[in-house]
Design a protein that fits this description.
Layout (H helix, E strand, L loop, with lengths): L9 H17 L43 H4 L6 H16 L1 H9 L11 H6 L2 H10 L6 H14 L5 H35 L15 E10 L2 E6 L9 E6 L3 E10 L4 H13 L31 E7 L4 H13 L3 E6 L11 H13 L5 E6 L3 H7 L7 E3 L3 H9 L5 E5 L5 H13 L8 H27 L2
Length: 468
């Protein structure tokens, strides 16, 4: 990891890690005769067996006697090599607290992300994090993605790479401590079966990882989508909305399944000599349950022709979003219908109709319109026959506008939504495509039929008006 993260209390972090090291030292197996100065056994079960120790491959462990496997347990004691990285890791998470608050100021509601109430009360973040690590309270691989998703919303995209390094470091520390501890348990138990003089250690509860997230909410209006992946169909999604000022606190806790079987299986493979060696194994031999599942890659949708426009209240956002559209592989062409500068006072109806007509005539696939609230441009665009324009400032509305309503025009208000959220919503909007075979298609057809009938009546009224 780079040393770019700034942290004024690095010494305090080191002192906290020293306490952790001392605690592990007190638990060292009695059969250990020395403490390795370089903890190359740090994550031994996630690496292939090579020449040397049957457990971790360290050249200094030449004996095949399983008793000497306890030497690997002591490798966790020496954390000196990792202190600097751990200090940077904690520094990175800690230093982004201000960035979190600044980012959500542009979004609206004030979210406060922390591990638990105890952290806020103690005021000692690094100690709390170290304490969480020793108790396996930090998230495991499959659940780190939840924190990553929140981080993605609140921070710039370019920070995610750094966060991935932090995540791997934390996971490596936790997985190393977990597997080394269970390896020692297995070693003692197997020795006890052969030598009755060796006492067996008491059974342990299956290990679990706990992920918790607390949210403090203070907003004029709250609209949230809750998706339950254990249910199918419409039952899996609930929409909750409050119609007034809301202040509250939400706790989210998730406990994983026990790791015991996975750990024991890996330990047995090492002890029995069935674990793949360096020649037949890939570099990454992390147990399957520790890996993040990557969904199958779907083909990219056809690039869109986009018309974009704004009035004098939306020039800033229009220019930013236009730059994003230009860089997107999901956009083939961009037609800017104005206004170029905030000094141009062309009224929003003219801009909205110009963009909507490009879509209605087939010269553009979709249009993106910005004004102060996003309402006026939507009203004006909907006056063009065949156009369905919506104002949306949240992910769920943007999604349903396309998938349920086949809306071709997205409208936003520069005075309503933060720029980072607007950019995120436009990125999502570009990826959605309406399915003409879906159940929603008939509903959209019904809207179009009503429009055709009413437009014919409107044309008749206009003809009568001309004769007056």
């Amino acid at each position: 990891m780079s040393s770019s993260a700034s942290f004024d209390n690095t010494d305090e972090v080191r002192r906290a890690l020293t306490k952790l090291s001392s605690a592990v030292r007190e638990m060292k197996p009695s059969g250990a005769k020395q403490i390795p100065t370089k903890p190359d056994c740090f994550n031994l079960l996630a690496r292939p067996v090579i020449n040397g120790c049957r457990i971790c491959g360290l050249p200094g462990h030449q004996s095949s006697n399983i008793k000497n496997a306890t030497m690997c347990r002591t490798a966790l004691i020496s954390l000196t090599r990792y202190w600097e990285d751990m200090a940077e890791c904690i520094s990175f998470l800690y230093s982004h607290s201000d960035r979190f608050h600044k980012a959500v100021q542009a979004i609206g509601p004030s979210y406060d992300m922390r591990l638990d109430d105890g952290m806020e009360k103690s005021g000692d973040l690094e100690t709390v994090l170290v304490d969480r690590m020793t108790r396996n309270f930090l998230k495991y691989t499959a659940h780190v993605s939840r924190i990553r998703a929140k981080f993605n919303v609140l921070c710039n995209e370019e920070e995610i790479g750094k966060y991935e390094e932090v995540k791997k470091l934390l996971e490596g520390f936790l997985l190393g401590g977990l597997t080394l501890s269970d390896l020692y348990q297995q070693s003692v138990a197997k020795d006890a079966a052969v030598h009755s003089s060796v006492p067996t250690m008491p059974p342990r509860q299956p290990k679990r990882a706990l992920f918790s997230l607390n949210l403090d909410t203070d907003a004029d209006h709250v609209y949230q989508k809750v998706q339950d992946h254990s249910k199918d169909g419409e039952d899996s999604v609930r929409v909750l909305e409050s119609k007034g000022p809301t202040r509250g606190h939400t706790d989210l806790s998730y406990i994983t399944r026990p790791f015991e079987k996975t750990v024991n299986r890996a330990v047995d493979e090492v002890i029995d000599g069935t674990r793949p060696n360096a020649e037949t194994s890939n570099a990454n031999t992390t147990p399957a349950s520790c890996k993040t599942t990557t969904p199958p890659k779907m083909p990219s949708p056809t690039p869109l022709r986009i018309a974009i426009g704004c009035d004098d209240a939306g020039v800033g956002y229009k220019n930013t979003l236009k730059a994003d559209l230009s860089a997107s592989p999901l956009v083939s062409t961009i037609t800017d219908v104005g206004v170029p500068e905030s000094t141009d006072k062309t009224a929003y109806p003219h801009i909205a109709v110009a963009a909507a007509q490009l879509v209605a005539s087939g010269q553009a696939d979709r249009a993106l319109l910005i004004c102060g609230t996003g309402l006026g441009v939507a009203i004006a665009a909907n006056k063009v026959p065949g156009i369905r324009a919506v104002t949306a400032h949240d992910s769920f509305s943007v999604e349903r506008a396309v998938l349920s309503n086949n809306a071709q025009v997205l409208c936003m208000g520069e005075r309503v939504v933060g720029i980072e959220l607007a950019r995120r919503l436009v990125r999502e909007w570009l990826g959605y495509r309406f399915d003409g075979a879906s159940a929603s298609a008939k509903k959209v057809d019904a809207i179009m039929e009503l429009e055709r009938v009413n437009y014919k009546g409107l044309e008749g009224d206009l003809e009568g008006a001309r004769g007056c």
